[in-house]
Amino acid sequence: MHVIFWALLILFLAGAFFRMNWVYYLVYVVGGVWVFSHFWVRRTLHKLELTRTMAHRAFNGEHIDVQTVFTNRSWLPMPWLQVQEAVPLDLKDQPDYRLVASLGGHSRLEYNYGLQCKRRGYFTVGPMSLRTSDLFGFVTARWEESSATQLIVYPQVVPLARLGLPSRSPFGDLASRQQLLEDPARLAGVRAYAAGDNLRRVHWKASAHADALLVKKLQPSQAVPVTIVLDMNRAAYPTRALVGSSEWAVTVAASIANVLINERQAVGLDTNGFDPLTGAPTVALPQRTGQEQLIALLSLLARVQIHDAGRDLAAWLPDRFAGLPWGATLIVVTPAVDEAALWTLHNLYRRGNKVIVLLCARQPDVRILAAKAERLGIHVHNTVWEIDLEAFAGVF
Predict the structure, then answer these.
(1) Cα–Cα distance between 376 and 358 in angstroms, integer?
(2) Looking at domain 226-395, what is its CATH homologous superfamily?
(3) Chain centroid, CA 144 distance in Å
């Protein structure tokens, strides 16, 4: 029990033993205040409501404003309230997130602060803890928020305004006249209906005008699927530049994905990195179009982490892309590429795929390597800095 309870009990026994009536009054007054203080603090905490308003998504480098509102639904005031917010280190823009204030009955208190997104990732803001007491300091109570707020910080996206996509295939033409895909938004004309044609392809207005069933002829799609491969094997990165190079690799992958999605390309993502959200290696994202796919790509890139993959790129790629469709483009973002990886990528090129390698770390004799890769049908580009990535955009 509380110390005050034992003090009151001792005073009561002493008053009874020495027959001091004034002690009884003291015990009654202090005891009544003590009991009321317990009711006071519990009542106000039970009637206290907390609301946190903030953005749940942001990009690396952005600043987020957070508004927390404390609403006291009780008619009893809270004379002393200490608030402590739990903020990850990578989001802090001030040393401490603490507030000491008082809150009247049926009133509200706002506590606003900012978060600085210093790096990509999944973060938890909160839970917030409160500490309060009565006027006399008899009772101290603590309360902690039952749930926290999730914040995802997307990787930095470098604008690539000069990146152009040719008509047949992104980043280059395919030496084939085979029609790959049909674009339902690009009408080439109409033709007579044939048995087996899908009724969805019937051009009803043209059929009514010609008094015969006519179906739509569609032009070939301007784009073929693209898969971005992000190498997050720890052994592939230089030790001294492990963090910087791996983060830059994620930035390169996010920038390319952003441009391709905005060009209405079907883009997928595969990586040998680790997903801390699931506690397992990442699951590949299939090739899709649209802004929802961009959000999914950026979300995966926000949380993927470098780890010991166990197999290098040359050993990992064949199993992952055995069923890659003909004509698809493979963009490999890696810190380094050796001869074994080049021959593995050359096999994909021989199957009719476009292969592009973006180096995200400094590699000696990169020009010699690029010349050798060109002979194998592979385009290698150095994208160590943003200026290099812009130069890569100008090439294509």
Answers:
(1) 16
(2) von Willebrand factor, type A domain (3.40.50.410)
(3) 26
Instruction: Look up the CATH superfamily of 47-154.
Output: Immunoglobulins (2.60.40.10)
pLDDT in tens, 281-296: 999 999 998 999 999 9
User: Residue 343, SS3?
Assistant: helix
Identify the H or E element spanning 44.
helix 21-46
Pairwise CA distance, residues 251 & 158, whole Å: 7
**Each residue of 325-372: pLDDT tens digit?**
777 889 999 999 988 999 999 999 998 888 999 898 888 888 888 889
Token representation of residue 342 = 């080049």
**Cβ within 8 Å of residue 196, ≥6 positions away:** none
Length of the chain: 396
Residue with tokens 């048995």: 195
What the block records as the tokens of 217 is 């002829």
Instruction: For the chain, report the end-to-end CA distance as a whole number of angstroms.
Output: 77
The b-or-e profile of 109-138 (16+ CB within 10 A means b, else e) is: bebebebebebbbebebbbbebebbbeeeb
As beta bridge partners, residue 354 has: 329
Candidates 256, 278, 250, 280; CA nearest to 268 is 256
What is the spatial distance between Cα 86 and Cα 67, in angstroms, rounded to a whole number?
Answer: 14
**Which tokens is 62 given?**
């952005």
Q: Could you state, in order of their start, the residue ranges of all structural domains in the chain? A: 47-154, 182-220, 226-395
Q: Distances in Å between the alpha carbon of 353 and those of 224, 287, 326, 347, 378?
A: 10, 15, 6, 9, 10
Instruction: Report the predicted TM-score, pTM, of the whole model to 2 decimal places.
Output: 0.74
Q: Quick count: other Cβ atoms within 10 Å of Cβ 27?
A: 20
Q: Is the dihedral of CA 288, 290, 293, 297 positive or negative?
A: positive
Of residues 285, 299, 286, the one with CA closest to residue 254: 299
**DSSP alpha helix (H) spans, 170-290:** 204-210, 242-262
Any idea which residue has 């404003």 for tokens? Answer: 65
CB atoms within 10 A of CB 349: 17
